[in-house]
Amino acid sequence: MAIETIKWEKAKVKLIDQTLLPLKLKYIYTADIMRLWQAIKTLQVRGAPAIGVAGAFGVVLGIQKSKAKNFKQFAKELLEVIKYLGSSRPTAINLFWALEWMKNTAFKNRAKPVGEIKKILLKQAIKIWDEDRQICRRMAKYGARLIKNNDRVLTICNAGALATSGFGTALGVFYQAKNEGKKFMVYACETRPLLQGARLTAWELMREKVDVTLICDNMAASLMERKLVDKVFVGADRIAANGDTANKIGTYNLAVLANYHKIPFYVVAPKSTFDFKIKSGKEIPIEQRNPDEVTSVFGKRIAPLGVKIYNPAFDVTPHSLLTAIVTEKGIIKPAYQKNIKNALCG
Ligand code: MRU
Predict the structure, then answer these.
(1) C-alpha span between 140 and 170 (Å, rounded)
(2) Contact 183, 149 (CB under 8 A)
(3) Beta bridge partners of residue 165, listed in sequence order
(4) How would residue 273 be classed by pLDDT, with cut points 50, 70 and 90?
(5) Measured at the alpha carbon of residue 168, what is the angle toward residues 121 and 315, in degrees to the nearest 5?
(6) How far, in Å, from the CA of 207 to the mean position of ligand 1?
(7) Active site residue 237
(8) Coil/strand/helix, residue 274
């Protein structure tokens, strides 16, 4: 069974502190919205769908002590809470999608007493959590069709159970293929600077007994040139209406390499990762993170003092490099502009 990454338990959010993995499996329990904001910011909880779920639970934490006497007062507090949570990380659209759901739920129920609206918001957050679990399964069933016996597949970052409330997006495809009895192996890119591939994906796949080999990011080209990779599967943080896809920094490198070596390149993502309001990847906000993440590894400095640092957390892969996008509604192929609309906006 997939590890439980995030959950609502006894009026608190329970989440794995992913910064401690794989050395320690420790849960954080919090009823404090500021603590949750910090957990999102510092990647204690991370991965686009999991950040969305955390945001929904964060809204519940933020309004639960509200003393508002009417909807007008309550709405003012709610909008502040939503703005605050939205300031944690800018790229994964799932966060803003979940916050929008929570806001719309409150406004739809504005005629009800504030106490009642609070209960409805908790129910809505749990529904977002539960639906994410089911969506992972649906995506995985479509995605597993793309995996053949003896495939050697490559992935980056962590798009698994640790990135969702279910069993993952790209890694969910691997779990489903394994359940179907397929034999294959996975190369996990370590994913500098924060090593989500080495720390999280390798740990998660080993725990689920999936055959995994860890590589440094700069080893992918040589593997592909030696014909040791059959397919690439990655997750996504935001997909524009034309299919351009933001995902962990280094994903674009892999897409260019896969294209050069004629290796299929698949993105696995739920509908909540699509941003239908933006036409192309040029409009996706890219999070810039603390230079310390590049100059230090596990608190130990590895670069000279004073060196200039460039540290974007994500890059954008143009849709022309994608073979297909796997969603809970099916596998979307080019032409993306039209096919994304048909598959997801019907
Ligand atoms: O910075 P992170 O660890 O939150 O980045 C996560 C990724 O880039 C994942 O690939 C993406 O969120 C998809 S997770 C199902």
Answers:
(1) 8
(2) yes
(3) none
(4) very high
(5) 95
(6) 19
(7) yes
(8) strand
